[in-house]
Write a structure and sequence with these properties.
The protein has 5 helices and 5 strands. The chain is of the alpha/beta class and 166 residues long. The chain has a domain of 115 residues: 3-Layer(aba) Sandwich (Rossmann fold), CATH 3.40.50. A 5-stranded mixed β-sheet has the order 1-2-4-3-5, with helices on both faces. It holds the Pfam family Abhydrolase_1.
């Protein structure tokens, strides 16, 4: 029994190889619908998924939703309709490495890059100079803090709102 680790390794390698070659699970109808109602934009040769819905008539307010860890923009699916009744535009993205966005390996993921991607999305949508409301949770809170650091109150040159939602 001195070579138990060798026997374990000989058994483990084929199981690992089998696991790595299994196809990913099928998406639920809700996730398929979420994906089909979104789009992709390119940030430094990386595909970033986002959803952008027009909503309330008469409002000019835009809200950008920043999701948590380890999830995706789908975090906001249950309140999406309610937000579109309040805001003119409701926008959510999947951070790099999450949801339907690319997941490059190896890659040095950082909060600074995620914030730059949000800014890139706002440029892509022609909203870089608009007043933006941020709604975030968990991991998205840290990205929101970086965005606010880049555009500090009271000047908010990039148009980011600092309102807190309870």
């Amino acid at each position: 029994m001195k070579e138990w680790w060798l026997q374990l390794g000989l058994l483990g390698v084929p199981l690992l190889a089998l696991y790595l070659h299994l196809p990913p699970p099928q998406l639920s109808p809700a996730l398929l619908s979420w994906k089909s109602s979104g789009s992709f934009f390119t940030y430094k040769d990386l595909n970033i998924f986002y959803r952008d819905s027009s909503g309330a008539v008469g409002s000019s307010e835009v809200v950008v939703l920043l999701h948590g860890f380890p999830t995706s923009s789908y975090d906001w699916s249950k309140i999406w309709e309610g937000l579109t009744q309040r805001f003119h535009r409701v926008i959510a993205l999947d951070f790099l490495g999450f949801g339907f966005s690319d997941k490059p390996r190896p890659h040095g993921y950082s909060i600074f890059e995620q914030a730059a991607i949000v800014e890139g999305l706002l440029r892509h949508l022609g909203l870089r100079q608009h007043r933006i409301n941020l709604l975030s949770h968990d991991y998205g809170d840290t990205v929101a803090q970086e965005l606010l650091h880049r555009c500090p109150p009271p000047l908010l040159p990039c148009g980011t709102s600092t309102e807190m939602v309870p």
